[in-house]
Specification:
Strand order of the largest sheet: 6-7-13-11-12
Order of helices and strands: HEEHEEEEEHEHEEEEHEEHHEEEHE
Shape: globular
Largest sheet: 5 strands, antiparallel
Distance between the termini: 15 Å
Length: 305
């Protein structure tokens, strides 16, 4: 890569050294433990820093990709050109105001779910085991156990490519199955307001404990993955289709269909993104040939092959 010195010099004026990396392997920053280098990896610590960084990238013509926790993504083997903005601890603040929770995009879903429970608020129990950030969950309209983000998101603040802060309301989210307006507009989700309902703390915690136990018993949480690999086909479950096609345990290089849950591709050791892509293609072809059902990846595939 050719370093843009104007950009690097500008970043050094905005961020401390530990919040900015050059040519950083994304395998260190994704739950799949897969991915080539990002030209620049940036960890903004506040809304002001995020605005300043985005303005600088616009000024220097540096494209950028937003990542939350690095779950639900497959970064390709040649990595990501331009900058990756990844939210971490300083952007994971949260506060409770009545039946609302206002939180930074970097907050982990499990922490938000627990925080809601501690404050006697119900509605986020479904998300207690989803291994992602709040911003990423809004971006993808994440869901589990008959719950979805669209049911609880009240307001979203974003930062545009020119550094302007915009506020979105419920009529503008365009939520669908694993879809939101934010997938098309290129803006950085920065802060989210959730609207929940009052509930009994013990009942809320009991439901979360139940969901957690179910997830731990069925899903391969002990191995690196990006979460559920395929979208749910209408009228079917992807994992059931893959399992009944006899593909559980199928392996290409270091990528494997989990022997615990066939809906997950796991990194069994030193998997490349190409291994994962080849395995996904093999599964798609064989399930379609035997079952007549087309499977589509739920995982975001980003970067250069």
């Amino acid at each position: 890569m050719e370093i843009n010195q104007e950009f690097v010099d500008g970043i050094k004026k905005i961020l401390p050294e530990e919040q900015f990396y050059i040519n950083e392997p994304m395998s260190k920053h994704t739950t799949f433990n897969i991915g080539g280098p990002a030209d620049y990896l940036i960890f903004p610590g506040s809304m002001d820093q995020l605005q300043a960084v985005v303005k600088l990238m616009n000024q220097c013509d540096i494209p950028f990709t937003i990542l939350g926790n690095g779950s639900n993504v497959l970064v390709l083997d040649k990595g990501i050109r331009g900058a990756v903005i990844k939210f971490h601890a300083p952007m994971s603040y949260k506060r409770c105001e009545g039946n609302k929770i206002i939180a930074g995009a970097g907050a982990y879903l499990k922490h938000i779910s627990q925080y809601a429970a501690e404050n006697g608020l119900t509605g986020m129990e479904f998300a207690c085991g989803i291994p992602g950030s709040l911003g990423g969950a809004v971006f993808m309209n994440a869901g589990a156990y008959d719950g979805e983000m669209k049911n609880v998101v009240k307001e979203v603040k974003t930062v545009t490519a020119t550094g302007k802060i915009l506020t979105y309301g419920p009529d503008e989210f365009n939520f669908g199955y694993r879809h939101s307006v934010f997938q098309a507009n290129g803006q950085a989700i920065a802060e989210i307001t959730l609207e929940l309902q009052s509930g009994n703390k013990e009942d809320i915690q009991a439901k979360m404990d139940d969901y957690t136990a179910r997830r731990e018993s069925k899903q391969p949480l002990e191995m690196p993955s990006a979460g559920s690999t395929f979208k749910r086909p209408e009228g079917y479950y992807a994992g059931t289709l893959i399992d009944s096609t006899g593909l559980k345990g199928l392996q290409v290089g270091g990528a494997q269909i989990s022997t615990k849950h066939a809906g997950f591709v796991v990194n069994s050791g030193h998997a490349t993104a190409q291994d994962v892509l080849d395995l996904i293609k093999e599964v798609q072809d064989r399930v379609y040939k035997e079952k007549g059902v087309k499977l589509y990846p739920e995982v975001r595939i980003i970067g250069e092959q």
